């Protein structure tokens, strides 16, 4: 017990505050507070705290209330605000690889392996930047400037391409100048990503921590996750460093395409020896710069013990150095070379195979590191034996490959008219052979995925039949009918599909690695697309190869078109933008630790917002506070509670409902939300209750180690859903199956909230009017 100042009138009467935090998809403050008249009391249009208009002066008249004052923290605009959020769809692979960083197993006593895990994820993220930059170069430099502009049959009828067509003989007609001009496209894309990353940092992730760097209570800090550290939600230095490194890597990739094409001509018979020497020297400089970029990514990870306010000088020097090298490379490529003509594909098309092999090797090393960490400190229910992070990293690489192949095939199909890209029946050669092989493995991958989904569907039907026997037992006093029982049992069975996600992801990831390796081997072994490489084979093999190639090209093309269409719709339609926002709600909770071009971390704005509000309100009033989080809001609430000093936590209770804290976060992110970490949260907040339903596909129980006699259990549930089987006096109309929504409509919600406030009052006695107060710390 420590001395505290005399309480304000609010504390003297026991005024309490309920701070509501919504979940994925967002909602309105009017819906959260159940009142059309609400006022924003603090915050801005992006994220703010709202109250009922009648509660604005609640602290000035505490004796008039028996229920807690309710406030709503609305943060949905952080992920689904203006139309520019639709552009974030292009950043999907970057977001997924960032998730892999946070999925590492627990690291008790394995500091070196933990650092190796983070390093490997950052290197995979760097390869994704190089891959997508290479895709932009493939479209702009190879397909457009080198192949189409260099072929009169392709450039004819394309007025926008006529000024640099090889057939016109203009100043831009030589291949090197065409390539130098086209390099402006991937360079502009890189600049846009750099600007977007810098801008989103200023808008989302600049909130300072709300408490000192030390925690004054006596609990062992090792049990807590890194989320309680003051610098966890503020990583300016690492984001700036990675942004500089990835920007430089992208610009150097564009420069390498230019130098490779020009030096290939200079080193061939008839080339200029002086230009050949210059090209070799420039290539060596680019290689040295690339090694320095890799060193920059490897040298330092996140620092969370204190807010990382300072930025390195490197963050300003590195991108501009790479930009200078790109300009020099463009001048070198554009230099006059009589007799140079473009034919076939742009030299250096094997870069995609080297990237794929590098990604595969890094993923395998990541799997070894993850497995070693998991075996050293296994956590119950961790998916895939600790290999969730490598599986998700594989998914990120696959998404990058699909996007690369998709855009290359669609542009090639558009440029060569009715011909089939890569089959030799059009005016241009088409994209690199490997991209066609990668597209061709998509149909077998989809076939396996459909088979897995069929197995899940059969299991769900069987489980529903079993549940039909037990569902009526929950409603003993009501008449039962088969259709209603099947509906309830089906909701419970479908909710359980969430727990089957790990083995589906693991199977798909393993198959993706195998098929990706096979695509590289096929492309390099045959140097031809699958449909032509299988010529002369048995009819069944040849037909299968041609079918896979045709379907793969169609799949990646359709995926690319759907991505553009979805992005366009999300740009114009707020409802569609909220759907995209749900994806970001789940994927961008974590800070940008691996890829700086990933969508911004909304929690770096939301967690400080909530922490500041809880701390300032309790210090000003001396009252009690319940932070009430639904779904993803419960994760934000837990993260904010971890950031509170002990004196404030003694006045705060936590109420979670429909919460993925253990079911999703505890399993997939064991180093941060594992059982030991959640048990530490239970010890820290003293008063915590969790409501859950069997029909909820997202939320679930929070079973903690040590729950037993004499220990206050966290879970309250499963709640009955639906509340009534049929028509009753209390429910004259059929009650709906609520699943993940409307937890506050359950009577248990109000009872649990009242019990929490009562327990909090017993833990923190409310002093009488005018007396000096004491609060536990």
UniProtKB/TrEMBL annotation:
InterPro entries hit by this protein: AB_hydrolase_fold
Keyword Transmembrane: yes
Residue ranges crossing the lipid bilayer per the database entry: 116-136, 179-196, 244-265, 277-294, 314-335, 351-370, 382-408, 441-461, 503-524, 544-567
Alphabetized UniProt keyword annotations: Membrane, Transmembrane, Transmembrane helix
This protein's record includes keyword Transmembrane: yes
Coiled coil ranges: none
Signal peptide segment: none
Protein name: Integral membrane protein
Organism, as annotated: Streptomyces roseoverticillatus
Organism placement in taxonomy: Bacteria, Bacillati, Actinomycetota, Actinomycetes, Kitasatosporales
């Amino acid at each position: 017990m420590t001395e505290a100042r005399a309480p304000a009138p609010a504390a003297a009467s026991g005024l309490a505050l309920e701070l509501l935090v919504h979940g994925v998809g967002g909602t309105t403050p009017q819906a959260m507070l159940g009142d059309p008249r609400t006022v924003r009391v603090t915050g801005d249009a992006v994220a703010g705290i709202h109250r009922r208009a009648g509660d604005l002066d609640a602290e000035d008249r505490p004796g008039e209330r028996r229920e807690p004052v309710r406030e709503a923290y609305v943060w949905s605009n952080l992920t689904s605000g203006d139309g520019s959020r639709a552009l974030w769809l292009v950043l999907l692979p970057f977001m997924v690889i960032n998730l892999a960083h946070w999925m590492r197993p627990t690291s008790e006593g394995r500091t070196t392996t933990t650092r190796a895990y983070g390093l490997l994820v950052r290197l995979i993220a760097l390869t994704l930047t190089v891959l997508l930059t290479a895709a932009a170069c493939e479209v702009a430099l190879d397909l457009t400037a080198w192949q189409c502009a260099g072929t009169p049959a392709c450039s004819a009828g394309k007025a926008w391409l006529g000024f640099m067509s090889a057939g016109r003989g203009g100043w831009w007609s030589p291949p090197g100048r065409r390539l130098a001009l086209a390099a402006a496209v991937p360079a502009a894309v890189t600049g846009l990503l750099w600007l977007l990353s810098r801008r989103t940092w200023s808008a989302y992730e600049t909130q300072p921590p709300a408490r000192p760097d030390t925690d004054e209570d006596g609990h062992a800090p090792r049990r807590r996750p890194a989320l309680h550290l003051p610098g966890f939600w503020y990583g300016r230095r690492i984001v700036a460093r990675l942004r500089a490194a990835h920007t430089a890597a992208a610009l150097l990739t564009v420069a390498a395409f230019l130098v490779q094409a020009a030096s290939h001509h200079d080193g061939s018979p008839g080339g200029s020896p002086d230009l050949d020497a210059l090209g070799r020297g420039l290539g060596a400089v680019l290689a040295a710069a690339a090694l320095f970029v890799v060193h920059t990514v490897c040298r330092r990870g996140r620092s969370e013990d204190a807010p990382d306010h300072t930025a390195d000088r490197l963050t300003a020097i590195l991108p501009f150095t790479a930009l200078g090298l790109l300009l020099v490379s463009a001048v070198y490529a554009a230099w006059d070379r009589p007799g140079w003509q473009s034919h076939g594909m742009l030299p250096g098309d094997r870069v995609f195979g080297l990237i794929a092999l590098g990604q595969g090797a890094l993923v395998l090393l990541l799997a070894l590191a993850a497995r070693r960490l998991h075996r050293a400190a296994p956590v119950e229910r961790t998916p895939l034996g600790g290999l969730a992070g490598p599986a998700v990293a594989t998914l990120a690489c696959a998404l990058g490959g699909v996007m690369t192949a998709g855009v290359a095939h669609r542009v090639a199909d558009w440029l060569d008219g009715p011909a089939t890209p890569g089959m030799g029946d059009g005016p241009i050669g088409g994209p690199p052979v490997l991209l066609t092989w990668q597209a061709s493995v998509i149909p077998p991958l989809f076939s396996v995925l459909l088979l897995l989904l069929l197995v899940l569907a059969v299991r769900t039907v069987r489980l529903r039949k079993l549940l039909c026997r037990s569902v009526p037992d929950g409603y003993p006093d009501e008449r039962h009918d088969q259709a209603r029982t099947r509906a309830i049992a089906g909701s419970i069975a479908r909710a359980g599909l969430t727990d089957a996600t790990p083995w589906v992801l693991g199977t798909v990831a393993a198959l993706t690695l195998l098929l990706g390796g096979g695509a590289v081997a096929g492309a390099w072994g045959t140097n031809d697309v699958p449909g032509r490489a299988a010529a002369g084979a048995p009819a069944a093999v040849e037909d299968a190869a041609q079918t896979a190639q045709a379907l793969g090209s169609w799949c990646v093309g359709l995926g690319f078109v759907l991505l553009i269409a979805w992005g366009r719709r999300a740009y114009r339609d707020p409802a569609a933008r909220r759907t995209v926002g749900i994806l970001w709600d789940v994927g961008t909770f974590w800070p940008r630790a691996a890829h700086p071009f990933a969508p911004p971390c909304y929690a770096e704005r939301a967690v400080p917002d909530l922490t500041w509000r809880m701390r300032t309100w309790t210090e000003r009033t001396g009252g009690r506070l319940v932070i009430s989080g639904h779904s993803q809001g419960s994760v934000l609430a837990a993260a904010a509670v971890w950031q509170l000093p002990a004196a404030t936590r003694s006045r705060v209770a936590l109420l979670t409902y429909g919460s993925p804290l253990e079911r999703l976060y505890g399993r997939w992110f064991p180093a941060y939300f594992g059982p030991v970490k959640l048990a530490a949260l239970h010890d820290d907040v003293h008063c915590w209750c969790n409501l859950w339903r069997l029909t909820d596909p997202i939320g679930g129980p929070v079973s903690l180690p040590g729950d037993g006699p004499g220990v206050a259990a966290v879970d309250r549930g499963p709640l009955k859903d639906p509340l009534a089987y049929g028509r009753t006096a209390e429910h004259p109309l059929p009650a709906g199956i609520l699943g993940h929504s409307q937890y506050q409509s359950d009577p248990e919600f109000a009872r649990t909230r009242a019990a929490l406030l009562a327990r909090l009052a017993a833990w923190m006695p409310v002093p009488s009017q005018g007396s000096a107060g004491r609060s536990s710390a």
